[in-house]
Amino acid sequence: MIQRPKIVLKHPRFYTLLALMAFGFILISLRLVVVQGLQHEEWLARAEQAQEKSVEIEAERGTIYDRKGRILALDTERPSVYAIPAEIKEPLAASRRLAPLLGLSQKNIFKKLRKGGQFVWLNRKISPEKMAQIEKENIKGIGFITESKRIYPKGALFGHLIGFAGLDNQGLEGIERKYNATLQGKNGGLILERDAFGHSVFPKGFNYIRPSPGSDLTLTVDEIIQYISERELDAIVEKTGAEGGTVIVMDPWSGEILSMAVRPEFDPNRVKTSQPSQWRNRAITDFYEPGSTFKIITAAAALEENLIHPDDLVDCEEGTYPVRGTVIHDHNAIGTVSFRQVIAKSSNIGTIKVAEILGADRLLSYAKAFGFGERLGVDLVGESPGMLRSRKNWSSRSLASIAIGQEIGVTPLQMVTATSAVANGGWLMTPRIVKETSSGKGLREKAALIRRRVVSEETTEQLVQILKEVVSENGTARLASIPGYAVAGKTGTAQKIDSATGRYSRDKYVSSFVGFVPADNPVISILVMVDEPKGIAWGGEIAAPVFANIAKDVLHYLKIPPQRERPKAKPWERDIDRDRKSLKRVAAKEKEGRVAHAMVRIGPRQ
Amino acid sequence: MILTAFFAVWQRNEMIQIGYETEALQQKKTKLLRRQKELIAEISSLSAAERIERIALERLQMKSADPGQRIYVAAEIQNHGEEE
């Protein structure tokens, strides 16, 4: 029989140590169960937070082009500087080094760095040169993230029209705001894995979500026509010391806006140095009393209703005519003249007499048909409907006042669109500014839209002949004439309401001219409006020459020869031909009773 | 077991190295794209109508053509029997 050796506790300290180790292992095992099992999710999240960094990648905003493909707005990439205050050991020294490079106050930077925390922006969208300088300083805890910055390479040209996008790439004004959803795109994301030193590895690993860039926009405007418009507007505003002004050039056949110039000017690259009132696109947001330019509408209504013929005689009472307790005067006293001469010489009395035959209801109805008192649906933000009171709010003098363009508020866009309806044979078009959008999904062209027919082609033919008289030697707008081209149009000189007295001011006027050229087959309609010119304020003296200067250069630029022999070279001119043909097709259908008026689509389908 | 462990560590190390290289190239690409965009913006700015007219009138002493100096030629190009 084997005898088992008897265990003798010779070294009790050894066994104590063994017991302690066993106890330690048990504790570690228990902790392992807690960490890996019970608290697994919590610890995993902590590790990921330490090792990974989530970065949102801004989608590139779409580019905006003019009708010839010139860039008007685009995104460039700019570095933004951030700090991780927890990693900066000497915030005071760091702030002193950064302040001159960032162009910020040292106190502000120090305040941000002293706060502690994980992340703080120091300055956003700085120049690459500044970035290089800061990189040289090699300050731990300072980093860069690339962001998009909107650039407007044409500066103040198109400023009011295009508007601007803010720091977070949100469109805040103009086209940028109206088409924000189209231009903006969809942001992507990236999860960076960081090593022990904080450097990122696998920049485009498995967690990369590609941003979708926004769609590009092609506008109907043309840089050269816009430049001509702004140059001439600047010249007249400077010459007359005017408060501001507006020029709109429109293709009367399609309603496409070729230029829209507004003063005071605004440069979207320098938003911070401008006042919000300068951002306003006054061509669509502000309305004014059109004065005599509105006689175009009164004359169109009377001719359409067959109440008068251009050669019918009207007694203009030698310049003095009582109407409902007030006396109306003409600037140039005339006696009995033809209706043609009434408009050519801009007689208030003759126009009021014709309006009295027309009646208030019909005048209101035609004013509405020509688009006054309603938004025309232009694809811009802040369009005003103007001011056209309902019939019940007319006083006994309203008929006379409205017939000569008082007691009514129109936007420059409404006035040029209504005049374009006379130019194109009687169709009120929806003015438009965006020609097409293009994205990865392809090109989408926007079609021209007819709002309605307002008067017949025969009426517009009569009216065009009358408006040509306005620009003749006998008319008020001989300074709007251009050698070699027939011009049709109408001057306007309207007193402004004095906000202090609520009455018409004696020294504040709006001078305007609206017309189209070549008169018998127009290519462009132009409105010139000068707000509060000092000294002489007559539309024929102030606005008419501006019209002539713009029209002369634009016709030359569009290669429209004096004898109306248009070459067929320019693609966009072919568009006009196409629109013109489309309008004529609709007109033919209309004669056959096959067309309902409101909103007939012409041109390419979307 | 030891070989497998070494292989895993080596593989992980290689991946990290490739990651660094990719990031460096990515940064280079970003910088080049940024530069390209800046150049596009510069071209667009330099070709502004106002600038070109100013240079033409002031530096090159050019003048705008008078209407009488402009000659328009109606172009009718026959191309395989079709008007262009």
Protein model, in words:
The complex is a heterodimer of chains A (about 600) and B (about 80). Chain A has about 600 residues and is an alpha+beta fold. Chain A folds into two domains: about 55-85 and about 105-220, Alpha-Beta Complex (Penicillin-binding protein 2a (Domain 2)), CATH 3.90.1310; about 225-600, 3-Layer(aba) Sandwich (Beta-lactamase). Chain A has 20 helices and 23 strands. In chain A, strands 2, 3, 4, 5, 9, 17 and 18 form a seven-stranded mixed beta sheet that branches. A five-stranded antiparallel beta sheet of chain A has the order 11-10-22-21-20, sandwiched between helices. In chain A, strands 1, 6, 7 and 8 form a four-stranded antiparallel beta sheet that branches. In chain A, strand 10 and strand 11 form a beta hairpin. In chain A, helix 12 (about 295-305) packs across helix 14 (about 350-360). The longest helix of chain A is centred in the first third of the chain and has 27 residues, at about 10-40. Mean pLDDT of chain A is about 85; it is low at about 565-575 and about 595-605. Chain B has a two-stranded antiparallel sheet. Chain B has about 80 residues and is mainly alpha-helical. The relative contact order of chain B is 0.04. Chain B contains two helices and two strands. At the A-B interface, strand 3, strand 7 and helix 9 of A face helix 1 and helix 2 of B.
